[in-house]
Known about the structure:
Blueprint: H1 2-6, H2 9-14, H3 24-33, H4 35-69, H5 71-85, H6 89-100, H7 104-128, H8 132-140, H9 145-182, H10 188-197, H11 201-229
Amino acid sequence: MVLLWEWQMFHLIFNLETYQLPIPSTILEAMTENRTLLLSYAGYTMTEAVLGMLIGSTLGFVFAILAAAWPRWGKGGLVLIASLNAVPIVAMAPIMNLWFGAGMGSRIAIVTIMTMAAMAINAYKGMRMVDPLALDLMHSYAAKKHEVFRYLRVSNSLPFVFTALKINTTASMIGAIVGEFFFSSRGLGYLLSNSIKVAKMPLGWSCIIVAAIAGVIFYLIVERLEKVFLKWHTSNRS
Length: 238
């Protein structure tokens, strides 16, 4: 695919010019020339994504615990949290900028809201989908309610929690980059937006590639943590 791209086969098929779709060698050259700037801005964007994901995932997990502990209102509360995730980033960005200013805080807030729902819903599902035989065993040992919750429900939710975290790695990068399109003076989204405005397409594509690489690394780190913390789970047994 990269060779076909380099040989301008896609340009021929889709009737594109090289200024519309730069070839890989030109993009690589732009990445090499601007490597310091790209690394600096990538670190800025990753900071927004990681902090926002950690805050959003933590809040989502807390909401899941509350919903599982009090199931009568839990499902309704999760619906409200899920509704926040349906709000477009385009509508959310100006509000977050008004509340938290044009600095990093507004993008962290956007990512927080985008990552809460996935964690809350997945963690709640894991806490509720407990093996009835395991529940009977805990009751036969006269385990108290908080002990059942801690040792059975929370432990059972961990695979679901890491599934949500892997979903949130992608959502957090999207939220941070798109948020930078609107209000930012740094970051890959800001650099990408400015590069397109001044027709520096190789630099713009460099931002896309660096963001993709950062997203993959972020995902692989979460996947590695999953293997470390879930050694006991059947999916990690050889």
